[in-house]
Amino acid sequence: MPEPSAAQKVLVPFSGEQTGTAPLTWGQRAVWQDMRTAGRSMCLAEVSRPPAGATVEHIMARFADLIGRHPVLRTRLEDEAPGGPLQVVHGSGQAVADVLTLPDDATTEDVEQYASSLHHAQEAARIDPYRDWPVQLAVIRHRGSVPYRVFTVSRLVVDSIALGMLRHDLNSAGPPGRSDAMSLLDLARRERTDPLRRVSDRAMRYWERQLRSAHPQAFGGRGDPQGRAGHRYRYGVLSSPAAGLAMLAIGQRTGTDTARVLHAVIATAIARATGSSPLTTKITVSNRFRPGYAQIIGPLSQDSVVTLDIAGAGIDAVIAQAGRAILAAGVYGYYDPQQLDEVRARIATERGYPAGITWVINDTRTARLDDVAGTASPGAVTKEQIARKRPETFLAWEEKTLGFAGPAQISVFDHPGTLWAEAVLETALFPREQAEALLRGIEEVAVEAAVDG
Fold it and tell me: Which range marks the domain in which residue 356 is found?
């Protein structure tokens, strides 16, 4: 892989109108807690091609305009108050961008590979929320043009939807306008009002019911009720075109989207592998459906809880349960994380061990709500098509130390034509052969449900 023949740091002055100080929003506080648990920064990064003909100077000017327009990008934290750190929006400052010039003899494939590696490296970037601005930019220059740029933002100030809106602004040909969306300063103050405190109170009643019914769920009953044992994880990847087709077939039969199908399939695979039912899992919900929240640049995603009674149930029944449970999880997925800490502490004191939930199912696919398979023609996916895809299944495992906040997570990502799932499992709780059986079980459940109904 080529290395830059020249690396230049460029100071990018910026200024903006809104300034002020406020507590963290509920979404920010949830990210802050995860960062402290994981012991690392948490960033979102993306690699993209700048508009045709864009120069380094043009990109830097757009970058400065972007920071000036959006107060969250001018935010740093102040020393912790009794209730946690405060966010401070500054009126001006200087960001630092990197210009990385690759040698002329680098091929197009070399440049693409370097951009991809830089993208992955930036997802693990260290951003000090007290000293650094929460946004970074790296521009790749090659033979006088700018083929790629890598844009990185701290999760303290964006979620994936907000990152997409920032990308749109960065790519826009016209001058940036004033953002009319609610700022995080305004949202933080709003969350201290009585109406939103009542929203959090209702969410806590839901969470308490879920936590009281949950129990440690790990392979062979090896869950450790005293907490996690270290930071060593089994990291597995499953690529299954057969499972991808199977989910579409299940959706065609049930007339539902693959978000609910996927959750039901993964939950069934976990329940089979662990013998746990009912199974309680955490999912991430977006609160952008709430009035006035759709265009906010900020982290509006929080954890919520789904419980499914899987024992003896067919996949169609589990999918129906998942639809109702995911809807409820969305309704009660907006709350003050500090209030949830108090609920957990109270339950832990009552029963003598932490009120935690082992499993996280994280569906990150951008198309998960747009692929309602029931609109497809009946029989579009056949058993024979699924069977032909089985030999293409790919599974890989490695063991490594991660800064990760939890004992077990299964995430699903966008990948054309396949179900791409990644598992991160605490080594002290999950032996390799059982962890591998779980990941293979996702394909087995999907294919079985598609073929046998």
Answer: 194-452
Q: What is the pLDDT of residues 180-190, one digit of tens each?
A: 789 999 999 99
- The answer to whether residues 130 and 236 belong to one domain is no
Residue 223 falls inside a structural domain: yes
295-343 pLDDT tens trace:
999 999 999 999 999 888 888 999 999 999 999 999 999 999 999 999 9
- Give residue-wise pLDDT tens across range 164-216: 999 988 887 665 555 678 999 999 999 999 999 999 999 999 999 999 887 65
Domain end (from 174, 190, 206): 190
- DSSP designation for 120: H
74 neighbors 297 (Cβ within 8 angstroms): no
Residues 333 and 336: their CA atoms lie apart, in Å, by 10
For residue 416, give Cα distances in angstroms to 240, 241, 242, 263, 420: 11, 9, 12, 19, 9
85 and 141 share a domain?
yes
Is residue 29 a part of any domain in this protein? yes
Kindly report whether the peptide bond that precedes residue 278 is cis, defined as omega within 30 degrees of 0. yes
Is 425 inside a domain boundary?
yes
How many structural domains comprise the chain? Answer: 2
Structure token pair of residue 83: 């209730």
End-to-end CA distance of the chain: 48
Task: Return all residues near 230 (Cβ < 8 A) that are at least 6 apart.
Answer: 426, 427, 428
Cα–Cα distance list, 9 to 44, 96, 275, 313 (Å): 21, 6, 55, 59
CB neighbour list of residue 335: distance below 8 Å, 6 or more residues apart = 26, 199, 200, 203, 204, 207, 302
Asked if 273 contacts 437 with a C-beta cutoff of 8 angstroms, the reply is: yes
Largest CA distance in the chain: 67
φ and ψ of 58, to 5 deg: -65, -45
Looking up tokens 């009002």, which residue turns up? 193
* Nearest alpha-carbon partner for 72 in 10, 163, 172: 163
Give the domain CATH number at 53: 3.30.559.10
Please spell the DSSP secondary structure of 354-371, one letter per residue.
-----EEEEE--TTTTT-
Amino acid letter at 209? Answer: R
Asked whether the beta carbons of 342 and 263 are under 8 A apart, the reply is: no
Domain membership of residue 391 (yes or no) is yes
CATH number for the domain spanning 434: value is: 3.30.559.30
The sign of the dihedral angle between the CA atoms of 122, 123, 129, 134 is: positive
